[in-house]
Write the structure tokens for this entry.
Amino acid sequence: MNGEQPRLPEQRNFEQAFKLSLKLARDSLRQFANLDELAAKAGALVEAADKSSLRVEMLGQTWRVKWPEIETVPYQPPREQLLLLHYLEQAGNLDGSDVNTGRLVGYQQLPPGLIYQPVFAKRAIKPFVGRFDQKPGDLLKAAASLGGLPAGFGDESVMIPALPRVKACFILWHTDEEFPARGNILYDESILSYLPAEDVTILSEIISWKLVKFM
């Protein structure tokens, strides 16, 4: 066996953990019987036809989440599906309908963002910086496909409506004579009220690669 360990059990463990996370999110969302109240907190809409599903905008697409099954229609990629359910779950537990403050912060300013900033930068910032450096205008073109608009930071920046209460600001500074290309991703300082820290990384990575692949 050359001392190598098989990888299949690790993959199986990952899939089992994901299924468990999905089940826990669905079980938690079933407690929200008042869809009108949940919709108001999450910035979603209750479907007029059956009153048993929510319509939610996510990254330029409209999704329906059906109750009590808590299934998304059309089917989302697994990571996006879990991210959306976590968003609805956390929004539903808020006291107010919108806790955004208008103050933007970087991932490193979120607890425990400083510790995981290198991972966040590698997964979410590096892909879009490498793709759009030295290509002025392409970032805005790609962001427009997700509903993004110019944001007025750095050499180029875009504000992307990721979820009804969550916007992501992607900032790029191009390579110049003094510094290499660099970037950042900012969120409202209330972001952890809507998504767990790991989901902020996942969302940022998803957006980054959607921008890259669009071009």
